[in-house]
Design goal:
single chain; 252 residues; alpha/beta; FAD/NAD(P)-binding domain; 8-stranded mixed β-sheet; 3-stranded antiparallel β-sheet; 11 strands
């Protein structure tokens, strides 16, 4: 006979085991969109202890809807090897333009990322950063419903050697440094320009404050570069670049 309390205990005990096991990390990634998950995948494959914290119920960021709800995305030649890495199917539309199913992309990247050893905590809002001796050293977390309802509930802290801001257009995590006066300006994204947006997404993926990296749309928002629309190669390449740089610093 099934016991309701046993079901509840199984969920509660296993969840809090995961949470306790991820209070100290090599890398805490904020935002489970394409760049965040790709970064986490390569970090985990490289031996880092990494978890993703996503404020929404669902993960995948803006992949699911493709463009205007047409659930297809485009990836350029430079990033095609990442589709191959994840085993995602695609078709060549014209030379250098590859079309993939948005649902397959989101679900496959999510699955491969979790199976690589990454723990994803959804419905958790990162409400601040831990900064010690001039370096980002962790994140401050609370339940998303607490923020939505405006309740005064104190947060908890996760320590990490690096934090990655993969929160998209708003660069939510880096905004906390601006709020504290630790950085001077976040210009936000410029108007859409796919070619430059894709290029600069990768170029602007970097450590913007000791211990804090930006990826994907957050990288362009912090640098004032153009947005790029429903082409995702730059997102994937951005995540991989951040992972490689962080892994090299962890090894040092």
């Amino acid at each position: 006979m099934l016991r309701d309390v046993t079901i509840s205990r199984a969920i509660i005990e296993s969840y809090f085991h995961d949470l306790l096991s991820n209070l100290e990390l090599d890398v805490a990634i904020v935002g489970a969109g394409p760049s965040g998950m790709v970064a986490a995948y390569y970090l985990a494959k490289g031996g880092a202890k990494v978890a993703i914290f996503e404020k929404k119920l669902s993960i995948g960021g803006g992949i699911w809807g493709g463009a205007m709800g047409f659930n297809k995305i485009v990836v350029q030649e430079d990033a095609r090897e990442i589709l191959d890495e994840f085993g995602i199917r695609y078709e060549e539309f014209e030379k250098g333009y590859y079309v993939a199913d948005a649902i397959e992309v989101a679900s496959t990247i999510a699955s491969k990322t979790v199976k690589a050893g990454v723990k994803i905590f959804n419905m958790i809002e990162v409400e601040d950063l831990v900064v010690k001796d001039g370096k980002v050293s962790g994140i401050v977390i609370n339940w998303t419903p607490v923020h939505m309802t405006g309740l005064h509930v104190d947060p908890l802290t996760v320590e990490s050697k690096f934090v990655v801001d993969s929160t998209g257009h708003g660069a939510q995590v880096t905004q906390y440094l601006l709020k504290r006066g630790l950085i001077k300006n976040i210009p936000g994204e410029g108007p859409m320009w796919a070619d430059q947006g894709e290029k600069l997404t990768v170029e602007n993926t970097k450590e913007v404050f000791p211990g804090l990296y930006v990826t994907g749309m957050a990288a362009n928002a912090v640098s004032g570069a153009p947005r790029m629309g429903p082409i995702f190669g730059g997102m994937f390449l951005s995540g991989r670049k951040a992972a490689k740089e962080i892994l090299s610093k962890l090894k040092v």
